[in-house]
Structure to design on (800 residues):
């Protein structure tokens, strides 16, 4: 943006100001020389004025540049800068006086050149002081600016700009136009001096300091003004730089604003504690709303609340009572009271009828703090502050004071707001904790999901006699569908598919048990019906009362080209016979596992042996597929599966499986519409 | 949605199931049966003619009382099931443990047999 280096800009203006000043001194000395020797130096007054104008402008630019970052400084530093410049300028003036006084009546003391050099030096310092202080005032005036104030200031700057050129118009005389201009500037200065919004933001100590600094500025301005006036009266000086409307206007402005600030600060001293209190309340308020981090606890907020209430109400003592909740003991914190005083106060308060009825109102949305009159020896007033969280009173804060009628409306208001804010903070904290916990549960479920996935076999045991393909989908993170394979020997394989009643986590646990039962029993190389009987006995011991498992088991003998099948309440398996080009359900009776939890179960399970031929397909399912419903409430059912297998039987198992799942999704109207676990296990004999 | 209607006739109770029994309301059915047991019934007739769907959770409820009924000598008969619901009972094998009959007349007749 700006190609000027900010450092070089400051240096350039400083350098220019010094150069202009040197030029001014040279020009004026030449002019004095000319005047003394009655020579026409050929340099007119206007050149002096022009250089003076340039000098003021350079100083203005320099200080504008220096103070461009004043926003970051506090008021006290600003005023101190003004004061120190003033002290420096005044000190320089004073030293000049001392110097000339020490010279006494010697010749050198009346040397016009020396005197003029010092005059110019003092003029430069004074100008620097006035311009820098005026710019500091600008910052103070424009603090919390409104458009009106900005306009006023702009008018003032324009007026001062005009005043710069005024000298060309009135030829450096005190005439009526000069006084008219000065009065105009005075009025504007007065107007601007009413903008003192920064003062209330100083605390008590800062106010005292600023009073001192303002007084210094005030003194310096007066001293410098006095010196300039006296210079002006000295007849020996033929060059007058200071009878200038711009400079006079600056004097007036700096002086008036310092005076106003001083007086207003002085009168603000007694009320500064109120403002500080309000500021502290605002900070407390912010603390209350920000304080709870997830790892922090609610007591900390309540502690801050207690402290905030005590300081906002100037209470002499206070305590916090939290009602006992499950898992936590009643909490009590004391402020400014010993336990015996507290218990006697507590006794008196709880015996009051007002308190009981007030507490009964706590079901209402809004309940305000309750002031009470006490008959205690030292404490005369109490204030009960409710702590409501989720419309339940979790406790209260009791504030006590030694004076009667100690709590006014404003205090009740601010304390009510404090307690509500704190309660909101606690509520938010509780919600946050809850959501963190939920997140943790989600994580746990993800782990469960991973663990369960590992329960389903990745590699399915199969031989050259048949191919296998499986698919499983869970409605929730975990589910109750199960399939597994086992290779008994080179020619004998066992396949199982199962479905645990219910869904979700409980189903997943039972599914894991089923896996354990299968993997251990199958080692015994038992026949399907016997397996079911043993599995029922084992599961009866561990299934929940109203849960059961259904399963279908197949023991495939690749040598004899037969499989033995038992069904325990599971939905029948579909078998496609290549020779017939037809598919049919393998109907066989069998009771679900865990329904009859005694020895009689074995009377309810059967096994049957089927022969298979190359191209035959077994479609094992869980009921999630059959029960998939379309928008008319129809179920997917066996017919659709039958048709699909009959049409596509020549395709690979993976393709058939894909087609089946797509058909199901199409039927229910989207993958997300199936609210149940479903699994598929396909076998194709070759 | 599941609606339950109870009818009492001496020690015979008739429980009419209207709508669907699934995981969300199987507990209501469970409670209803438990209450009936506590009242001291000898026969429980379940009218399933208005039952449109039963999930495994619903079947689990009936299943879980089988042993208790046997111990207490309470006979349970379900009647009027539509084909689809009946099929669900059959697949699981529950039809071998709980008599499923056509209508209330048949159910009462069945009870006398027991």
């Amino acid at each position: 943006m700006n190609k000027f280096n900010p450092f070089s800009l400051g240096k350039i203006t400083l350098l220019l100001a010094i150069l202009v000043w040197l030029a001014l001194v040279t020009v004026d000395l030449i002019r004095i020389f000319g005047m003394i020797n009655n020579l026409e130096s050929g340099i007119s007054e206007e050149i002096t004025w022009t250089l003076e104008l340039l000098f003021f402008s350079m100083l203005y630019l320099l200080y504008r540049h220096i103070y461009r970052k004043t926003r970051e400084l506090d008021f006290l530093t600003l005023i101190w800068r003004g004061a120190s410049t003033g002290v420096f300028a005044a000190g320089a003036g004073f030293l000049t006086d001392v110097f000339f006084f020490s010279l006494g009546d010697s010749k050198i003391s009346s040397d016009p050149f020396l005197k003029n050099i010092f005059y110019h030096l003092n003029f430069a310092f004074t100008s620097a002081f006035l311009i820098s202080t005026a710019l500091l005032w600008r910052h103070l005036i424009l603090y919390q600016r409104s458009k009106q104030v900005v306009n006023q200031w702009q008018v003032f700057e324009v007026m001062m700009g005009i005043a710069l050129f005024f000298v060309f118009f009135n030829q450096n005389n005190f005439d009526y136009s000069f006084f008219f201009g000065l009065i105009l500037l005075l009025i504007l200065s007065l107007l601007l001096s009413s903008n003192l919004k920064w003062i209330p933001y100083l605390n008590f100590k800062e106010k005292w300091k600023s009073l001192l600094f303002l007084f210094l500025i005030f003194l310096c301005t007066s001293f410098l003004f006095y010196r300039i006036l006296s210079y002006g009266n000295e007849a020996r000086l033929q060059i007058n730089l200071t009878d200038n409307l711009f400079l006079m206007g600056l004097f007036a402005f700096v002086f008036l604003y310092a005076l106003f600030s001083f007086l207003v600060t002085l009168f603000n001293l007694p009320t500064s504690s109120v403002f500080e209190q309000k500021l502290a309340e605002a900070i407390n308020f912010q603390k209350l709303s920000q304080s709870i981090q997830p790892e922090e606890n609610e007591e900390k907020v309540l502690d801050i609340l207690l402290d905030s209430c005590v300081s906002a109400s100037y209470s002499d003592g206070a305590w916090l009572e939290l009602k006992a909740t499950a898992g936590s003991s009643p909490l009590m914190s004391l402020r400014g009271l010993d336990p015996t005083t507290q218990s006697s106060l507590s006794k008196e308060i709880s015996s009051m009828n007002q308190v009981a009825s007030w507490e009964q109102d706590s079901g209402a949305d809004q309940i305000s703090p309750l002031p009470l009159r006490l008959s205690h020896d030292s404490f005369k007033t109490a204030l009960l502050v409710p702590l409501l969280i989720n419309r339940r009173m979790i406790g209260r804060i009791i504030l006590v004071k030694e004076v009667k009628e100690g709590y006014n409306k404003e205090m009740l208001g601010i304390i009510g707001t404090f307690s509500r804010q704190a309660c909101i903070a606690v509520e938010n904290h509780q919600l946050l904790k809850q959501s963190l916990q939920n997140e943790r549960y989600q994580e746990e479920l993800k782990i469960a999901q991973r663990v369960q996935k590992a329960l389903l076999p990745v590699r399915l045991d199969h031989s050259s006699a048949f191919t296998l393909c499986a698919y499983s989908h869970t409605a929730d993170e975990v589910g109750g569908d199960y399939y597994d394979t086992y290779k008994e020997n080179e020619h004998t394989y066992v396949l199982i598919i199962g479905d645990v009643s219910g869904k979700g986590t409980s189903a997943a646990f039972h599914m894991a048990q089923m896996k354990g039962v299968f993997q251990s029993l199958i080692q015994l190389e038992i026949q399907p019906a016997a397996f079911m009987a043993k599995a029922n006995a084992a599961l009866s011991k561990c299934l929940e009362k109203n849960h059961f498992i259904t399963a279908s088991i197949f023991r495939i003998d690749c040598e004899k080209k037969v499989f033995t099948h038992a069904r325990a309440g599971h939905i029948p398996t579909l078998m496609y016979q290549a020779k017939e080009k037809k598919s049919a359900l393998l109907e066989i009776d069998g009771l679900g596992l865990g329904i009859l939890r005694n020895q009689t179960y074995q009377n309810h399970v059967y096994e049957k042996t089927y022969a298979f031929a190359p191209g035959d397909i077994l479609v094992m399912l869980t009921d999630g597929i059959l029960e998939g419903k379309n928008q008319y409430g129809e179920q997917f059912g066996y017919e659709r599966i039958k048709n699909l297998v009959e049409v596509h039987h020549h395709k690979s198992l993976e393709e058939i499986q894909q087609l089946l799942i797509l058909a199901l999704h199409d039927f229910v109207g989207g993958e997300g519409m199936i609210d149940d676990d479903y699994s598929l296990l396909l076998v194709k004999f070759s | 949605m599941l609606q339950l209607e109870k009818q009492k006739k001496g020690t015979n109770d008739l429980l009419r199931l209207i709508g669907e029994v699934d995981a969300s309301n199987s507990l209501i059915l469970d409670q209803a049966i438990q209450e009936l047991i506590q009242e001291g019934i000898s026969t429980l007739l379940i009218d399933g003619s208005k039952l449109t769907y039963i999930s495994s959770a619903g079947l689990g409820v009936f299943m879980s009382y089988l042993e208790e009924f046997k111990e207490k000598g309470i006979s349970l008969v379900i009647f009027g099931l539509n084909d689809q619901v009946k099929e669900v009972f059959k697949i699981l094998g529950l039809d071998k443990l709980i008599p499923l009959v056509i209508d209330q007349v048949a159910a009462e007749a069945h009870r006398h047999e027991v």
Notes: Chain B has four helices and five strands. Helices of chain B lie at 26-39, 56-72, 83-92, 104-113. The CA atoms of residues 28 and 75 of chain B lie 21 Å apart. The longest strand of chain B covers residues 43-54.
